[in-house]
Amino acid sequence: MERAQERAFADGATRxxxxxxxxxxxxxxxxxxxxxxxxxxxxxxxRVAGDDTAALFRRAADTADPGAAAVDPTATExxxxxxxxxxxxxxxxxxxxxxxxxxxxxMVVNLAxxxxxxxxxxxxxxxxxxxxxxxxxxxxxxxxxxxxACEVALDLAAWQCAGTRACAENHSWLGxxxxxxxxxxxxxxxxxxxxxASLVPLALTGLLWYLSRRTxxxxxxxxxxxxxxxxxxxxxxxxxxxxxxxxxxxxxLRAAHTAAGLLTVAAGVGLAAARHDREPGGPxxxxxxxxxxxxxxxxxxxxxxxxxxxxxxxxxxxxRDRDGRLVRxxxxxxxxxxxxxxxxxxxxxPGWRSHGPLHDDxxxxxxxxxxxxxxxxxxxxxxxxxxxxxxxxAAMRGLGGPAVALLACALxxxxxxxxxxxxxxxxxxxxxxxxxxxxxLTWQASVIPPLLLVLFALCGWLARxxxxxxxxxxxxxxxxxxxxxxxxxxxxxxxxxxxMAALTDSGPLLIAVITAVTLLLGTxxxxxxxxxxxxxxxxARGTHPFVEGAAETAQVLGSWLIxxxxxxxxxxxxxxxxxxxxxxxxGILWDVGTFWPRAAHPFAPPCYAERAVPDxxxxxxxxxxxxxxRLVISxxxxxxxxxxxxxxxxxxxxxxxxxxxxxxSPLERLYGRWFPAHFGPDALAALHRDVDCWRNLYRLTDPxxxxxxVSGGDGTPAVDSPxxxxxxxxxxxxxxxxxxxxxxxSEYQADPAFAEERGxxxxxLRPELPAPRPESAP
Length: 778
Known about the structure:
Blueprint: H1 2-10, E1 23-28, H2 36-40, E2 45-50, E3 55-59, E4 81-86, H3 104-114, H4 124-161, H5 165-170, H6 190-197, H7 199-220, H8 247-277, H9 284-309, H10 325-345, H11 362-388, H12 400-427, H13 439-446, H14 448-472, H15 474-480, H16 488-501, H17 507-532, H18 536-539, H19 545-578, H20 580-593, H21 609-627, E5 630-636, H22 638-649, H23 652-655, E6 658-663, H24 667-674, H25 676-679, H26 681-690, E7 694-697, H27 752-764
Parallel strand pairs: 1-4, 1-5, 5-6, 6-7
Antiparallel strand pairs: 2-3, 3-4
């Protein structure tokens, strides 16, 4: 009899009377991570699906078979069965993963790609131009990082220090490279020294390639839920079937960036020898080989730029195609060219001696100038896109992407300049035996103190405005608790929490000021380096004593601040991966950055959503199809973004039995403002139409979550609920005899309104509809 009922239900009949309706609440946690015991509020939990990286958990009492993926109806007692999806291990792990923070510039420029303004369909070419410009900026960052490694290993260590007797004597490990005695050892020839030292940037390029390929296999290769063409939905690119399957795009960009790194190393080794061979009296054959080398490097650079500009692939389908032979053979061809460069540079050249810097400021200066021009053109394109479809809530009026791209370039420049400056100080403590790094890198380090002064002044202004806002909100706080006794201290604490939470909305202003000051100071550093040819301190000599002292102070202080910042950066990053409290502090920024696919830079940290979103969609689809029950996706904080992305990916046959409950959600407050093309008003309204059972909870004291600002239509209620009270009581009451805490961003499920909203969502899912017919077994 039981099997007959199951077959009838599978054939589309309604559920038999007397059997409880199956309902599942799929919980998705936010940043900082948590444990399944905390999510399910039960010490006994069972993993029902997944692995050690990401998995589904359920209470042991909610299933008769702990290993079963289906719900035991006899254990639910009319309530939805909670099931926790734990994904925190996708972005955390052992302390060595803190080294990913060194790839921060790559992650930031990848964010700029997704900050494109919303546009109409007729702006396709302009949208492609925006993406190509961001990818070119990302390419310059790869070249800058490898060039900085070349500056440290080739120029400072092998060329200047090993070629100078005084410096080489202070570092015995460079003795075999030093031209001592009549001619030195075999490795003392400048070209051979450079070839040997190039193993450092070559190893860096290989490490970046290895990390990108390893994470590519673990994340981008996850297959998304299979869908047919008629099941595709619009409103946002996140609804496209191939959005979370970036295997081909990352492989293409990885090939181009790896080739760019190898070509940069080849240029650092070969161009110095080619420049020497062009001098009068040099061998004609070597001069010809130098010209051929330069032509080959130029050809390789053009091919790399062409591959980066030509995006390839599509999100409209799951793209499993492979790129052509040109893309696949680009890194091996660049490696062969590098090996030929080693042979060319290592040829015996009598009379070739290393003196002065290996290269002047032209390479770094040209790279910085190119980055500035690309960002300016990107700003023009972004402004045109924003004017096509204005969005009043978009951050910086559509210029958020160019601003973030400029900050990525500034981060890369500061890291390159800081490392070069610190290594130069370590090799030559007296500052007299070698010339040191290019002057431009010293100028870039010197702009950090004035930038910090501006930042401190801005923080002081924001603190003053927050204090004034806190005072202004005291009357509003008292009005929210009309029937309770007033407590001025308690009122002040609640008003202060609300004012502090509102600081998040000042993010666009903060980024705008930092970007403007960075652009101004960066331009000044570029002009100062090329106009004077000296570091800020020596360049200011002979001027007013105050100016001279300020320039020298900025030069020394900037260099030490970079070294200190680098140490703190790695230390905080390691602590954030191992300490949950530290992770919650900076986790939101990191999880936002690694949420997006690597569409602009293949060496950025991996996108965890390319594993999490397919996990959620597969679970929702298979559960609703096999049980016919109702399901609520319950997402908190960043989990609400994953829940929304999963809802976009669901086919229409599933969305009718799925509700979306978000709380503490940054969907509009953060993602909608900074990523308007994908989470703007039109996209969120389309999500509401696709998943009409959607409710959003928020508090005024929450610094991350907020309203999604989507109104109801066609008789459906608005998405946002009224702001939840926080704290639940102003003082001591009969229901709350002890003072209730200000919860802010946490413990939304403890509010009585949470269970009420979840119950109303389940009631709106129309349980009387027949269940869908499951796919027949082969």
